[in-house]
Specification:
The chain is α+β, with helices and mostly antiparallel strands and about 325 residues long. The strands form six sheets. Strands 6-7-13-11-12 form a five-stranded antiparallel sheet. Strands 1-2-5-3 form a four-stranded mixed sheet. It has a three-stranded antiparallel sheet with strand order 15-16-17. Strand 9 and strand 10 form a beta hairpin. Helix 1 crosses helix 2. The longest helix is centred in the first third of the chain and has 24 residues.
Length: about 325
């Protein structure tokens, strides 16, 4: 009886049908919150990111679209973490909930000349499937240590190939937990900026590729990985491109011409192989990386009158 009186007191003079709907909404929200709490673990982010940075945070691993929707609806602020290859996280951690895609989000399907991949799949696993299925088009992106979700969000590109240019359709969850989809004709993307906005989470991407030779595709994948390795991108605890290329120039060459190759701040240093890459060392320190990034921007602006826009994201609170 207590439950009945509680609902009546909340509903007042509202008709019984409306009162019933209100009770069901309350019950649904309570279930969503309880299920979300079960998925949360307190983890040190340095242990689950490729760049090995980050303090403690509440991490929720979701395995289905339903779980993801519930998670988004149950919290006021969140961040989505893929492979952690494009983010440096403060040693103090972050206050927002971290969402990691698992389960069905790590599945890949081949359908004719199309590859359908979940947002949590690593790009290297997609490329492996493409080579096995003799599907060409994505191999220029070999060696980029991103998840599909992260690669699409940033419109990852290499050797003249943009990942968003090969998309037919994407599915995603918006900031309110609703399912959405975009076809290629409705997508808007540009250099290092994908079709999704902050807070939107890619659940699935469909790529349209071309039939090719499995041997040639595998060879191109190997060659591109070797080239990225030569440039310093494949080194342990090394970032991808630190800054976007400014209009009409190359960030790495500008940094090098400013005399900043090898510049060091604590454990972080500008890579001697490629000036637009940071080497974080054996024991990465996020604060050192942030200070170095800031000093590079200031020096380039002063010496070259060029404003560099970071590609790497810095999460959390930094002292400087």
């Amino acid at each position: 009886m207590l439950g009945i009186f509680s609902v009546r007191s909340l509903c007042g003079g509202i008709p019984k049908k409306s009162c019933g709907r209100a009770a069901r909404r309350m019950a649904r929200k309570k279930r969503q919150k309880m299920n979300a709490e079960k998925r949360i673990n307190l983890l040190k982010l340095a242990e689950i990111t490729r760049l090995s940075t980050g303090g403690w945070a509440a991490v929720a691993r979701v395995s289905s679209v339903k779980e993801l929707k519930d998670e988004v609806r149950s919290c006021s602020s969140y961040r989505v973490l893929g492979n952690g290859s494009n983010v440096i996280i403060a040693d103090s951690g972050v206050s927002e909930k971290i969402i990691k895609l698992d389960g069905e989000f790590k599945k890949i399907r081949i359908k004719g000349n199309k590859v359908i991949a979940g947002g949590g799949v690593l790009l290297k696993d997609v490329l492996k499937k493409c080579a096995e299925a003799s599907l060409a088009g994505l191999e220029n992106l070999a060696g980029i240590p991103a998840s599909v979700g992260g690669a699409v969000f940033k419109n990852a590109s290499a050797f003249g190939c943009e990942i968003c240019g090969l998309l037919e359709r994407i599915k995603f969850i918006d900031g309110k937990g609703a399912g959405r989809a975009l076809d290629c004709g409705s997508m808007s993307y540009s250099y290092r900026t994908g079709p999704l906005k902050r807070g939107q989470i890619l659940t699935q991407a469909c790529f349209v590729l071309k039939k090719g030779s499995s041997e040639k595709i595998s060879a191109r994948i190997r060659n591109n990985i070797l080239e990225r390795s030569r440039r310093g991108f494949m080194k342990k605890n090394a970032t991808g491109s630190l800054f976007k290329n400014p209009h009409g120039g190359l960030a790495g060459k500008i940094i090098q011409d400013a005399g900043l190759s090898g510049l060091r701040r604590g454990s972080a240093a500008v890579s001697p192989r490629h000036a637009n890459v940071l080497s974080l060392g054996a024991n990465p320190n996020a604060e050192d990386a942030y200070i170095l990034m800031t000093d590079i921007r200031k020096a380039v602006l002063f010496k070259k009158n060029v404003y560099l826009e970071p590609l790497i994201e810095f999460w959390g609170t930094f002292k400087k």
